[in-house]
Design brief:
- The chain is an alpha/beta fold.
- The strands form two sheets. A six-stranded parallel beta sheet has the order 4-3-1-2-9-10, with helices on both faces. It has a four-stranded parallel beta sheet with strand order 6-5-7-8, sandwiched between helices.
- α4 (97-107) crosses α10 (208-222) and α8 crosses α9.
- Helix content is 47%, strand content 17%.
- Bound molecules: D-glutamic acid.
Amino acid sequence: MSDQRPIGIFDSGVGGLTVVSEVWKYLPAENIVYFGDTARVPYGTKSKETVTKFSVENVEFLMTHDVKLVLVACNTASSLSLEFLKRCFRVPMIGVIGPGAREAVSATRSGRIGVIGTNATISSGAYEAAVKRIDKKLKVYTASCPLFVPLAEEGWVDKKVAQDIAGIYLKPLRTKKVDTLILGCTHYPLLKNVIEKVMGPKVSLIDSAMEVAKEAKELLDASGALNKSQALGGHKFFSSDEPARFIKIGEHFLKRRIDCAKRKD
Ligand code: DGL
């Protein structure tokens, strides 16, 4: 059996394209519909009520494309709204928190895990709770790094300013001697080099985008919903604001050309 329906992926903007990029690696035959809520980004500074209202609308939009699975690529939406979304919709849904936390728990040797994310993700305590649900004894230390988002969008990922900002944000986590660090925001995989330089080579960086793609593959396989076609999947990109900027910035995140993106009406 082969299920050709697309996987729906949404994010507050372009950042979730890091998840699309990983889904391409693990599930190349799958069709994808991506929605970036560029008109209302950022979510990382907004309240739970607002992010949840936006997230419900985003899933409703993806449902109009008959998606077989929804990936909540946005860490902020996953932290604040995933449980509510799962109660509202019958389509299977995976957020980034669970997969990232599970991978961090299996990677840590010292039992000291760091988490970085937006203000909303960090103050929700979602990663901390997910790690503790697996093993209460683990120590979790967190830091919000809001300036990483504009740095990634500007493409300033190798500049000295990125290194300096990372040095300030990550100092408390270095002091706590974490051996594993969860990159708890869609944008942070772009800053991996700088984060690695600051944290040192012994700290494992956990990329939630990669983990969610692996989990999507497992879920589709287990439920007999993989697209078994030999051809590469098709992709549709939508944004809520004007697509030109989405395409320009999105290509950095995707590391590929985006031929077409449409505005969601
Ligand atoms: N996509 C958001 C996240 O992963 C980052 C950008 C925003 O604040 O909306 O948390």
